[in-house]
C-alpha cells in the first residue's frame, strides 16, 4: 500500500472519526454487569469468539462486494438496488433494535462526513448503514482488500476494548496489551473474509445477540447498546 493510502486508512480507523462509535458497547455492558466478563482474559476470549463466529465477520466479508457495487454505481453501470438489498440483509443479521439503530446512525454520520469532504451520495443511498458506508469510504479513499477488512475489524475491536476499559474496568495498558495480542487474529480473519462470500457464512453469536437484546432492559447504563 502506498504511503498516502496508508495515511487515509489511518484516518478511517482513527478514534477521532466523528461517527459516535464510542457511545456503543454492543451488549458488552450487560455482560460486564452480569459478571460474564470481569477481566482481560474473559474479554479476550469473548473478542476472539466474536471475530471467528460473530456478525462482525459477515459484515467484513460483505465489504468487498459492497465496494465493487459502489464502484459500478459511480460509473453509472448499476443503480443502488443491489447496495440496498445487501444493506438490508446485513441489518437483518442484527437481532437487537439497538444494534440496528447503531448501524444506521453510524452509517448516516459517516456518509454525512464524506459528503462534507466532497463525496456526496444522492437519495436513498445516503441512508445506508455502517458496513455500506464504510465500503463507500474505502472506495473514496482508495483503500482495497484486505486493508479494508483489517480496518473494519480493527475498529470494531478497538471500540470494544475502549468500552471495556471503562466497564470492567481494565487499565489502559491492559487494553493496549490486548489490542496487540489480537493483531495476528485480526490479520488472519481479514485475509480469510476478504475472499469469502458473506451470504455463505454463518454466525454463532447467540450469546452476543441475547446480550444486545437484553441491554435495553438494564436499570442504568453508560452505553447506547
Topology:
Elements: H1 3-13, H2 28-33, H3 40-53, H4 55-74, H5 81-92, H6 97-116, H7 130-140, H8 147-167, H9 172-194, H10 206-215
CATH architecture: Orthogonal Bundle
Helix-strand sequence: HHHHHHHHHH
Uncertain segments? none
Q: On the 0-100 scale, what is the average pLDDT?
A: 91
Strand content: under 5%
Approximately how much helix is present in the residues? 55-70%
Largest sheet: none
SS element count, helices: 10
Model description:
The chain is built from ten helices and no strands. It has one domain (24-215): Urease accessory protein UreF (Orthogonal Bundle), CATH 1.10.4190.10. It has helices at 3-13, 28-33, 40-53, 55-74, 81-92, 97-116, 130-140, 147-167, 172-194, 206-215. The protein is an all-alpha fold.
Task: Name a few traits of the molecule.
225 residues, mainly alpha, Urease accessory protein UreF, 10 helices, 66% helix, globular
Summarize this entry quickly:
The chain contains ten helices and no strands.
Amino acid at each position: 500500500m502506498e504511503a498516502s493510502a496508508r495515511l487515509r486508512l489511518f484516518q478511517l480507523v482513527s478514534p477521532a472519526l466523528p461517527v459516535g462509535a464510542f457511545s456503543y458497547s454492543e451488549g458488552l455492558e450487560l455482560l460486564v454487569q452480569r459478571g460474564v466478563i470481569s477481566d482481560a482474559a474473559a474479554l479476550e476470549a469473548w473478542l476472539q469468539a466474536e471475530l471467528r463466529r460473530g456478525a462482525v465477520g459477515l459484515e467484513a466479508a460483505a465489504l468487498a462486494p459492497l465496494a465493487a457495487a459502489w464502484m459500478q454505481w459511480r460509473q453509472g453501470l448499476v443503480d443502488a438496488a443491489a447496495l440496498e438489498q445487501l444493506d438490508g440483509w446485513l441489518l437483518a443479521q442484527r437481532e437487537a433494535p439497538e444494534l440496528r439503530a447503531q448501524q444506521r446512525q453510524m452509517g448516516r454520520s459517516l456518509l454525512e462526513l464524506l459528503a462534507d469532504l466532497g463525496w456526496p451520495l444522492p437519495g436513498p443511498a445516503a441512508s445506508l448503514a455502517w458496513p455500506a458506508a464504510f465500503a463507500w469510504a474505502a472506495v473514496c479513499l482508495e483503500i482495497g482488500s484486505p486493508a479494508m477488512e483489517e480496518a473494519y475489524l480493527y475498529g470494531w475491536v478497538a471500540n470494544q476494548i475502549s468500552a471495556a476499559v471503562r466497564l470492567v474496568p481494565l487499565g489502559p495498558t491492559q487494553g493496549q496489551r490486548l489490542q496487540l495480542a489480537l493483531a495476528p487474529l485480526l490479520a488472519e480473519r481479514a485475509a480469510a473474509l476478504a475472499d469469502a462470500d458473506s451470504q455463505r457464512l454463518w454466525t454463532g453469536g447467540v450469546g452476543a445477540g441475547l446480550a444486545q437484546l437484553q441491554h435495553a432492559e438494564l436499570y442504568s447504563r453508560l452505553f447506547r447498546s
